[in-house]
Amino acid sequence: MVEITIRKRPREDAVVTQRKFFKKTARGKVIKVLRERYLRDDVNCGIQRCSLCSLDVEPTLPPLGTQEHQALSFGHYVIPDTNVFLAQMDLIESPLFKTPIVLLQTVMEEVRHRSLPLFNRLKMLMRTDEKTVWVFYNEYRSETAVIREEGETPNDRNDRGIRKATAWYNSHISLARPPIRNQPKPVLTTAVLLTDDVANRQKAEAEGLKAISVRRYVEGLKDANQLLDLLSVKGEEIEPTRAAAPRQALYPEYLPTATVLAGIKAGQLHQGHFNANQYNYLEGSVNVPAFTKPILLVGRETMNRAIDGDIVAVEVFPESEWKAPGDEVVDQESTLKNDDAEDSDDEEGEDDVEAAVELRIVQKEGTKRPAAEKQPTGRIVGMVKRNWRSYVCHIDRTSLQSSNPGSLSQQTVFATPVSRLLPRIRLRTRQAPSLVGQKILVTIDRWDSSSRYPEGHFVRALGQVESKEAEQESLLLEFDVPYRPFGKAILDCLPKEGDAWVVPPKNADDPEWKGRDDLRDLLICSIDPPGCQDIDDALHARPLPNGNIEAGVHIADVSRFVLPDTPMDNEAAARGTTVYLVDKRIDMLPELLGTNLCSLRPHVERLAFSVIWELSPEAEIVNVRFTKSVIASKEAFTYEAAQLRKDDPNMHDDLTKSIRLLNDLAIKLKAGRMAAGALNLASPEVKIHLDSAESSDPVDVEQKQLLETNSLVEEFMLLANISVARKIQETFPQTAVLRRHMPPPPTNFEKLKDVLLKRTGRSLDVSSSGALAASLDQCIDPNEPAFNTLVRIMATRCMLSAEYFCSGSVGRDTFGHYGLASPIYTHFTSPIRRYADVLAHRQLSAAISYSPLHPSLHSKPYVERVLDVVNRRHRMAQMASRASVEFYVGLALKARGISGTVTEDAFVIRTFRNGINVFVSALGIEGLVMFKREIQFDAENYTVSVPSPNDGAPTTISVFDKVRVKIDVEKDPNTQRGKVKMTLVSPVNSASL
Amino acid sequence: MANLTSISKSEKSYIQTALEAVPPLREDGRALYDFRAVLLATGVAPLANGSARINIGKNPEEGAGGTEILAATKLEVETVDSGDGVDGGRIVCTVTCSPAAYPLLSMNALDELQYDYTTTLHQVLSHPSLHPRNLGILPRKKSWLLNLDLVVLSDAGNVYDAMFMAARAALWDTKVPITRAVQYTAKKSSSSKPVDEKMDTDESSSGFDTRQIPSAQDFDLPDYWDEGEVLGGRELWPLAVTLNIHSSVHFLDATSKEEAAAPLKMMAAFAFPSTSSPTIQAVRLLGPGELQHARLQTLLSEAERFGQEMYDALEIKLRDEDFRRNHKARNRFAQR
């Protein structure tokens, strides 16, 4: 008979058993929360072979702790204080930090309270196998539980709890290993308190506990040199040892969070994302809902330590102080090249010179500018949320004091981020000489008001610059693409049969066939780019006896395999999308699904989700039907192959006929869409050949060709998406997953309209998407076919980006898709590579009563949250693929550059006071041509006048002019950062300018 | 007022005759001015901001019986300009009678009874003279709504006295979370120099002090773990004394039967400010009997005397309860 003991304490012990606290909700209510606490005597200490603790869990702490420490000669564990995790997470995460860690519940809760991202990293840390981390629930063990004394601050209470737990560990160990008579007293393993809080350390020492600061601890470790670099500077400010000489504040202090929030609520401050200007490091902007134009921030002080992506609070100046954005390219590297990284102690001296230069630049801006160009101007007064992450950087070679490769002395150096939007980061490292010429990952720790640059620390090296691996990984890191291989829990969600999984033979009782249409006999084929492995769509069409046409789009039935709320589903939701780099694909779903089980390969039976229309010969929808189905694709075409097949007059088989039928319909559908005002947008798209046989270069660039069949597939996918969007919106008006493209505010087009009018005399009607489409069609220069594409590219840049949204979260009138001129739209056709499509599949499946809808998809907040992530990932994925293309274009240029100079035709798209921005359509890249000599700049007419080299008459260059540029790739000698450099060849040669 | 307990004529006459006897006799052997045993505990509802449970006349042998009332307060944030809130906060009292306490009453009669009790309690407690000073959060923006809820769990007579005692104990126990006003003030001059302190955070922790800031928009809780400070003027909460009057006799703490036998009750509520003499907060005459005006004065001063005794006893008990719940519990925890 098991003895039953009552662990619940009587009401009299309320102070101990209950933990009460107040919570202020987002709506301003105050809620009292009560937690019941049960104290027990059997919370395991986690030390292996402990004679006192029960054995129902597997302890992980080695009985002797670690002995690899110079100063602490005895075996020990560390018990880190909360501040260690808050400030030094990189250190703890490092594989070189091997000391067994006892993680106290108090610490864990405090970390969660202070920073959710850090808490998530802490959770990851607890799960990894390389680390020995034991979570000790000290608040639940009766000996170590503490209650708050009267007048004690929460922080003091937690510190006391941590000390109490440390003391308990030591006494517990001595009890578990009592001294044996006639034997020398054993040297006991000790629990050491690791904290950067001096007060806590002193109290601990007074209580007879071992306590040590992080720096001192790390200094005694074996790999101290590498580990010391990982130390964040943040942790040290608690140390009183450094004489805190008051330094001159360069930036205004931030307002406290509560004040900022109150100001935003009252409408006196504006909240938004900070966007750095990539041409001018002294300028930034913040988009806020209150103004149609973004708020301009000019100069360092007003940008007040914001880093691209931070959410900031901005105060707007009165209208009389509003300014226009600058028209000069200001490069951080050239302006501040003399800045010394070691100047942390005296920021005066030559700094003043640079400050003066900056001041001149800032003041020059905005004077004598037309009032129309003025933007709301303001300054940052508070930080709502820092969005700092790890940045890929290069070490600036000139900032090194000693480049002796053997030198291990600590130096302060500058790291220049790859992204032009970020400021230089100052970091201290002992490995500086060996890091030059490598891509490294750097984390920003803090940015004090007295420091010109943010301070950070080195995380790890990615590899040599321009090695493909390093470049690839740095791209993925830079755009925050999750690229770890899928974990075991995720792979466990795959069908057990693996590769051998097949659609079971047809049988009405089989759950797989239940409710599915058998479409295996239809002549279905897929059309994709060459080399495509994740085929998620296939098509068919056939005439019906009544003269109408049946057309079907069949999409891989991913939701059959990816079930809601499984590890695989969560991972896919977190990844959001598959990322395509030039030489690598980072899948959203494990490969088995993406390229095999879900991929609609030819000649095998696959599960699909079909949209089948009855269309009139004029391509009007008579009827639409959605069904789960089983299909067997007859052929997987490439766009080219399909095009050839369609155009071959000798082919008359049914499959060819169905392609022709589809094509006819697609042409009509497109015409209908264009008539409704859809935009034909353009973005520079180039194709990268990797080691192609046809080209002598290892890598080559070619512009993408668009075939009729591209448009065929596109039209049917659009049609399917629109039909599905209507259906799920009807069925789930509150939570349908839709996609929209907001019409751009007319102010976005002002500049382009002005340029077009002044330079070419054409006007652009932007009142609606239809009007814009019509006026874009008229922007044709008979002599220059690329001109139209150029205008389209520039118009596209004025627009907002499309986004996923939850139908219940926004007004019905904002559902429209501007670019497609469709009142409603969603993404349904690529569930293998986009998570939003998976959600749409689930909703459609529930809408046709095939399966019940998972409760999470009835919850508006859940859908909103998932779509927020997907939107962000989507944006990042696009940028990553673009950057990947750019990198290969650079490689190709370099390769071509070896055999001679590369000169290409380019169009001027923007003029600056000291340069022009050109677009090279053949390569799909943009570049700056800078002039060192003074040139005439006419902001009103978007022209620059360049004096010819031999003092002849000046040549005028204006926006939209066609020029020839010489392109070469040069490495920045300091940072090894590859840079595309362009110089004008004609009309003037700017090499000497 | 409806008779809640029906007794026969002979029973009624028996009680009345015994009261007129010399010395007066009561069914349970008490003297006229004796109370039954009063049991009080505070902090009985942990999720409430303050709470108390009171029992009058629990039978020590059975461990049951007596008038039992549970009182609890709950604070809610209200918006003054757009919501129901009143600048400086407000108090709403509600009394609910458990149907088990009045098994003989119909639902309608029970509703009426509850309404009666609610009105009496609310009128007395929400009087401006008693209003606590710290129910405001932000002047003209946010304030606390103090809900005082009482449940009559069982009725064995003298519900009014018990109700006021329970209400007083719960209010005495109530703690108001400490709030801090936060606001942003735009700078006056428009120079782009780094400006100095632009923030105006009220460091003093009481809600009262935030009144000095007119434009604060929002507040926060500086200490989530702290229960807060006690209600302002908590010693003022009144106590009620009910005198049951039968011809020339009056007596305290009537049982249900005695209430049914006495034709008239006088309920008087007193507040006992520490600095000045007690003030009368309310007087109610209940029942069909008559009372001569001349006698009212004597009865009131009698009632005041009883009230003072009751106040003193309750005060000691409340402080004792506070001590038990905090200090003693901590000590016991420390000595485990």
Any overview of this molecule?
With 993 residues, chain A is α+β, with helices and mostly antiparallel strands. In chain A, 30% of the residues lie in helices and 23% in strands. Chain A has 27 helices and 36 strands. In chain A, strands 10-9-8-11-12 form a 5-stranded antiparallel sheet. In chain A, helix 21 (654-675) packs across helix 22 (708-731). Chain B has one domain: Ribosomal Protein S5, domain 2 (2-Layer Sandwich), CATH 3.30.230.70. Chain B has 5 helices and 14 strands. Chain B has helices at residues 9-20, 107-125, 159-173, 256-261, 293-334; strands at residues 38-42, 50-56, 67-79, 90-97, 136-138, 142-154, 175-176, 180-182, 218-220, 229-230, 239-246, 249-252, 264-271, 279-286. In chain B, the strands form 4 sheets. In chain B, strands 1, 2, 3, 4, 5 and 6 form a 6-stranded mixed sheet that branches. The model of chain B is unreliable at 187-214 (pLDDT under 50). At the A-B interface, helix 1, strand 1, strand 2 and helix 10 of A face strand 3 and helix 5 of B.
Produce a short descriptive summary.
The complex is a heterodimer of chains A (993) and B (336). Chain A has 993 residues and is an alpha+beta fold. Chain A is built from 27 helices and 36 strands.
Give the strand order of the largest sheet of chain A, numbering strands 1, 2, ... along the chain. Answer: 10-9-8-11-12
Per CATH, the architecture of chain B is: 2-Layer Sandwich
Question: How many separate structural domains of chain A?
Answer: 7
Please bin the fraction of helical residues of chain B.
Answer: 25-40%
Task: Give the amount of beta strand of chain A, in percent.
Answer: 15-25%
Question: What are the segments of chain A in which pLDDT stays under 50 over at least 5 consecutive residues?
Answer: 237-246, 343-351
Biggest sheet of chain A, in brief?
Answer: 5 strands, antiparallel
Instruction: Characterize the overall form of chain A.
Output: globular
Average pLDDT across residues of chain A?
82
Task: State Rg of chain B.
Answer: 24 Å
Structural class of chain A: alpha+beta
Q: What is the CATH superfamily of chain B?
A: GHMP Kinase, N-terminal domain
Count of individual domains of chain B = 1
Topology, number of strands of chain B: 14
Shape of chain B: globular
Span between N and C termini of chain B?
Answer: 54 Å
CATH topology of chain B: Ribosomal Protein S5, domain 2
Radius of gyration from the alpha-carbon trace of chain A, in angstroms: 32 Å
Query: N- to C-terminal separation of chain A?
Result: 96 Å
DSSP helix fraction of chain A: 25-40%
Total helix count of chain B?
Answer: 5
